[in-house]
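Subject: Re: docking follow-up (nicotinamide-adenine-dinucleotide)

Dear J.,

Thanks for your patience while I sorted out the input files. As discussed at Tuesday's group meeting, I've set up the holo structure prediction with nicotinamide-adenine-dinucleotide included as the bound ligand rather than trying to dock it afterwards. The sequence and the ligand SMILES I used are pasted below, so you can double-check that they match what you have on your end before we go further.
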Amino acid sequence: MESERGSIAVDPRASGSPAATTELRAGIVGAGFIGRVHARSARLAGARLAGVAASSAESAREAAAEIGADRAFASAEELVVSDEVDVVHVCAPNNLHLPLARAALEAGKHVVCEKPVAFDAVGAGELARAAELAGRVATVPFVYRYYPTVREARARARAGALGELRLLYGGYLQDWLLAPSDDNWRVEPELGGPSRAFADIGSHWCDLVEFVSGQRIVSVSARTAVAHAERPRREARSFARGDGGGVPRAVETEDIAAVMFETDAGIVGSTVISQVSAGRKNQLWFELSGTEAAVGFDQEQPETLWVGRRSGSERVPRDFDTLAPEAAAYVTVPGGHPQGYRDCFDAFVGETYAAIAGEPAADGLPTLADGLRAVRITEAVLESARERVWVEVGEK
Ligand SMILES: NC(=O)c1ccc[n+]([C@@H]2O[C@H](COP(=O)([O-])OP(=O)(O)OC[C@H]3O[C@@H](n4cnc5c(N)ncnc54)[C@H](O)[C@@H]3O)[C@@H](O)[C@H]2O)c1
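The structure tokens for the complex came back this morning:
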């Protein structure tokens, strides 16, 4: 039960460890961009940062000092089974998600696992089942669900304010791999997986649009493209910029995906996913067009929700008294005081920890089942692009 910050009551059986206490102890695996975001949210939600593991013992020590964790673990494998940890946040490169999350669940830990949760649906399915069998909370940070304006779009779609939905469309565009000399561990299939742009950000788009529309993507027709046939492989693989160096190697995974789809309600849609679109930093946007009205959300301008009507459109501001109650519940500061990405993370981690404390899962808390769904859609996109045919999204 969440009480004052700094003390979350946790089921003492949660870690399977006699050392379990009433204070939730979080272990962070991977201390790059998102590991630090997780660590901050974990602390805000009342957990103790019990430990951190990184790519080496030395980088873990540096990270522990920077984020204020109790200790640095020599390896991720040691952290995920440690008696000193109740919940493991898996924030390492993609190839480690499945083995580390599975080991943590088997050791009785609760898990927050970054996407993509596995390289294929078989692995993602195993992980989802492992969480069920273990009876542990296992969530996936599809955090864009936590914008109040996203919840408002969802509330309007659910209440029928848009009429019948006819079209879902949008995209997710970034530019951090624009130059041929840009590199990152995500470019390596053995670290990033068989899909790059789609698994990395297309997964967020599909999760969000399914969440808001209440419809499921059942088949896809996709094309993928590689922007640069070669990129230099670097030692420091985290967001390396075009500053020379590195040995050229062939690029095997997509920078771009253009996807048409059909939903279970029989309507059509499309999305464009790119990590090479100049000037777009993190533009996740969608519109839902209905027979009465449309709604449009843009992650780079999340403080308003566009509501389109033939008789006149408006931008609904994010504020306590402008949004439906289920959306206003995620407003933390008055309008005019911008909320953003990390607020979404805080809300997500707060709800995860509330579930760990025994509260019923909050509506919309994304779990490993949602992580599995994203992997299934990704597989269908890759297969469609490869075979140049429509592909059904697997359900089994
Ligand atoms: N949900 C989201 O909104 C979101 C946003 C960004 C990233 N992510 C996901 O988070 C993961 C990490 O992405 P990032 O952008 O933080 O990458 P990053 O390169 O900034 O950080 C990765 C970290 O993992 C560490 N690492 C490497 N090998 C390790 C090992 N064997 N054990 C422990 N740590 C190891 C590295 O030292 C590095 O600090 C990715 O899977 C990505 O898809 C999710």
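A couple of observations from a first look. Residues 50 and 325 are 36 Å apart (CA to CA). The chain has eleven helices and 17 strands.

Let me know if you'd like me to rerun anything.

Best regards,
T.
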